[in-house]
């Protein structure tokens, strides 16, 4: 019994220390934390909180990205797993990889619905969608998450909160036979490359189209799997395609008319 009490007390102290170190990092005080890191890694090499701290202190962006990804793969339920996921989204956004950022961030709150800083996630996600001209997808997720988190501030997004276009009405409309969701699996400057991917994915049973798009003044040929009436159905298809062919994807909302 005495040993159990000591172990619990030690665990609490360790957790508090990690929280303190992360608070210091957030305040810009990294030097003292760096000094403690080698000892922490030596004592707790597989602790997810220590691994998160190590990734935060890693200056090389690609290395940090890999560490955050490994943390999520091994410890998806860890205390700092949601923060690791958001760090990956921030990395994509900071490097102008808005397509990857929007796709990644749109899934964070699905995995971690109790994350306390919802506003931070939504702001970054919306900015990512808007940076690549995906206004319809941005609107869809804004209203979806507004229905889930009523305290969400959407005033800076240039949208009106009204009864004619709220998430409840939208979900009702989407539950009909209208198939406004699609899975984008690539965008190529070469149309022949786009057609090649279209053929490849069509052969495993999906309805695929190639659509000319323009992003930041550049023209691309987007390869899209179409015909989904819900975000869930589109996500399922995207995951299946990625599993079978190793192709990354993102779900888009495209109302007709």
Whole-number mean pLDDT: 81
Strand order of the largest sheet: 2-3-1-4
Strand count, sense and barrel status of the largest sheet are: 4 strands, antiparallel
Give the full name of the CATH homologous superfamily of the largest domain: Tetratricopeptide repeat domain
> Would you state the CATH class of the largest domain?
Mainly Alpha
- Share of residues in strands: 5-15%
What integer value in Å does the Rg equal? 21 Å
The rough form would be described as: globular
Give the number of domains: 2
CATH architectural label of the largest domain: Alpha Horseshoe
CATH topology type of the largest domain:
Serine Threonine Protein Phosphatase 5, Tetratricopeptide repeat
Distance between the termini: 69 Å
Order of helices and strands: HHHHHHHHHEHEEHE
- The helix fraction, in percent, is 55-70%
Low-pLDDT residue spans: 1-13, 162-168, 172-176
Number of strands: 4
Instruction: Return the structural class.
Output: alpha+beta
Number of helices: 11
């Amino acid at each position: 019994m005495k040993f159990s009490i000591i172990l619990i007390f030690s665990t609490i102290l360790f957790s508090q220390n990690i929280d303190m170190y992360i608070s210091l990092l957030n305040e810009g005080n990294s030097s003292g934390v760096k000094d403690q890191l080698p000892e922490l890694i030596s004592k707790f090499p597989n602790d997810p909180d220590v691994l998160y701290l190590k990734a935060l202190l890693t200056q090389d962006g690609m290395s940090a990205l890999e560490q955050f990804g490994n943390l999520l793969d091994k410890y998806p339920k860890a205390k700092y797993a949601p923060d690791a996921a958001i760090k990956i989204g921030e990395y994509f956004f900071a490097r102008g990889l808005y397509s990857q950022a929007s796709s990644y961030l749109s899934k964070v709150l699905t995995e971690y619905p109790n994350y306390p800083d919802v506003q931070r996630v939504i702001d970054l996600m919306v900015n990512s969608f808007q940076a690549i001209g995906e206004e319809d997808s941005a609107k869809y997720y804004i209203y979806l998450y507004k229905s889930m988190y009523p305290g969400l501030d959407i005033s800076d997004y240039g949208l009106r909160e009204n009864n004619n276009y709220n998430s409840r009405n939208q979900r009702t409309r989407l539950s009909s036979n209208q198939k406004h969701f699609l899975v984008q699996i690539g965008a190529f400057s070469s149309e022949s490359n786009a057609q090649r991917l279209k053929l490849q994915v069509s052969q495993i049973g999906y309805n695929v189209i190639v659509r000319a798009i323009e992003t930041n003044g550049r023209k691309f040929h987007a390869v899209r799997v179409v015909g989904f009436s819900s975000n869930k159905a589109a996500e399922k298809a995207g995951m299946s395609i990625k599993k079978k062919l190793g192709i990354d994807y993102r779900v888009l909302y495209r109302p007709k008319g």
